[in-house]
Amino acid sequence: MKQLDLNSLSVFITLYHAGSTQKAALKLNRSQSYVSKVLSKLREDIGDPLFVRTATGLEPTSYANIIAPKVKEALAQMHSALEPESFNPLALDKVTIHLAAPFIIPIGKILINKIRQKTPAVIELREWNLHSEVLLLEEQVDIAFHALKDRPQSLYQRKIMSVSGQFIGNRQGEFIKTIFDNYNEYSGMYKLLDADIKPGIIIDSQYLSGQLMDEHYTYGLANDKEKKNTPTDVAMICKAASRCSPKVQWLMDLCAPIVKQSRW
Prior knowledge:
The chain is of the alpha/beta class. The protein has helices at about 5-20, 20-30, 30-45, 60-80, 100-120, 130-135, 205-210, 245-260; strands at about 50-55, 55-60, 95-100, 120-125, 145, 155-170, 175-180, 200-205, 215-220, 230-240. The protein folds into two domains: about 5-80, Arc Repressor Mutant, subunit A (Orthogonal Bundle), CATH 1.10.10.10; about 90-260, D-Maltodextrin-Binding Protein, domain 2 (3-Layer(aba) Sandwich), CATH 3.40.190. The chain has eight helices and ten strands. Helix 1 crosses helix 3 (about 30-45) and helix 1 (about 5-20) crosses helix 4 (about 60-80).
């Protein structure tokens, strides 16, 4: 027996219940000649007439009567297998998000409260770190927000906003370089604003940076409207193979507006 396509089997089941090519064509919204052509090929592929023409219409052969229930069940199982996975936030066990360090303090609380309104799941919200990309690929992290940059093709990135770089704090003090993992370890965006600046203090804590701003200053990111100074594109990041999963889509729709609309 030759390999059969699902469309031919679907036509067979419709024809089996309709009893004529004309009625089957109406149900399928196709021409009668199309149904006849599919039936002719199916007969050849299976090696059985399948239907015999009578005064009242097409009568199934004994072979057609045997296979029809099996084919119908198989098609139903195939359609069921291809249906999108049902998703209910209330049934989630855990939600894990990694945020670039500058976002944690301004939007961390808002993000947690918004997610908690939708699900009782455990919420793990952490700063982006050197292991975040690997954790995304291993699906231990659902989504992340970080700078849009070159990454493996196995990671999907979608730009959601741009932020501006600017000096903040006391310009009379020392310049502090605040390091953000996977962003500015080996570069200095601040030099685009002032090429002569050299950091006197280097730290990797956004919280500590905030505490030092009365005496010193740093280069920080701000979600302002003009974005005229050294703009940085921010992306939502997830595993490419998971980008269309119901959970990731739900988190995208829930979190992206919060990140995009926040002000700091």
